[in-house]
Amino acid sequence: MEQGAQGSAETGVPQRPAGAVRVPPQLRAADVDRGRSAAPGAARGEHTHNEPPVPRPRPAVQRSSVRGQILDALRTALVAGELRPGEVYSAPALGERFGVSATPVREAMQQLALEGAVEVVPNRGFRVVVRGARELAELAEVRALIEVPVMLRLARTMPAERWSHLRPLAEATVRAASSGCRATYAESDRAFHRALLALADNEQLVQIAEDLHRRAQWPLVGGPGARGRAELVADAAEHVALLEALAAGDLDAVRTLVGEHFTGAT
User: Fold this and answer.
1) Res 19 pLDDT > 90
2) CA atoms of 178 and 202, how far apart (whole Å)
3) Which of 38-47, 126-135, 246-255 is predicted least confidently?
4) Which of 96, 109, 140, 211 is the most interior residue, by most CB within 10 Å?
5) Which long-range contacts (CB under 8 A, 24 or more apart) does 228-231 make?
6) Distance CA 99, CA 183 (A)
7) Is residue 9 predicted with pLDDT exceeding 50?
8) Which of the two residues, 180 and 110, has the higher pLDDT score?
9) Comparing 128 with 21, which gets the higher pLDDT?
């Protein structure tokens, strides 16, 4: 059984275990204050028996709350395949690895449950949802139904020079793809699509499309590495080609590129 983080005898503040994600002191202190009444790692009957090891998570982007940082880190671990489909992870065990109490981890996992990434397993924790090729195809179809008409309308109405403003974002996806890191590319990919759809001036559209996009980036059953660096680079190159088609008002090329892009996305 995994043991909770040991607290300092003098302060009672949980000590960050070796290899855990570094959380800024002011945020870590706020988290400790929030969960001071509970023993570190203890959480609503969740157990840590026979859990698979979790690789050291990447540092989270600095946010205004521990929960936000943990949510970002968990999303990154999910895309990278470090949280494996079908496996159950408890908030106390993940909290130890992040150097925080179970509370912000549980809150972040509840958000991922709302997004469909994990499901609650009573008295155990959260199971990463198992997904297959059919779900990916369904997501691609829905994304195309929503985004293709918007892009075609923008191609007809948006001045050609406006598309040049998005070129740095498209080129950033190529650089991210060249790193071979799925998580880095996933973030850059979403940033490009978000900026493109924002030109439609419809915030609801942007939010719905990003949720679908994020779901499409989760790894399939079989673990990470389904797409190598070459596939990521080819995917990123389609962003540049799409911008050129949009600027030229080439509706047929836009329709074809978007359809192929969504179908190939994993």
Assistant:
1) no
2) 32
3) 38-47
4) 96
5) 228/180, 229/177, 229/178, 229/179, 229/180, 231/264
6) 22
7) no
8) 110
9) 128
Average pLDDT over residues 61-85: 82
Tokens describing residue 250: 């080439």
Element (H, E) at 89: strand 88-89
The secondary structure of 163-194 as a DSSP string is HGGGHHHHHHHHHHHHTT-HHHHHHHHHHHHH
The more confident residue out of 68 and 14 is: 68
Q: Which residues pair with 119 in a beta bridge?
A: 127
| pLDDT band per the 50, 70, 90 thresholds, residue 49 | low
CA distances to 29, 161, 177, 179, 217 from 171, in Å: 39, 17, 10, 13, 20
Question: Both tokens of residue 149?
Answer: 């008409």
Cα–Cα–Cα angle for 142, 204, 131, rounded to 5 degrees: 35
Place of tokens 């293709």: 148
CB 70 within 8 A of CB 104: yes
Q: How far is Cα of residue 70 from the mean position of the Cα atoms in its chain?
A: 11
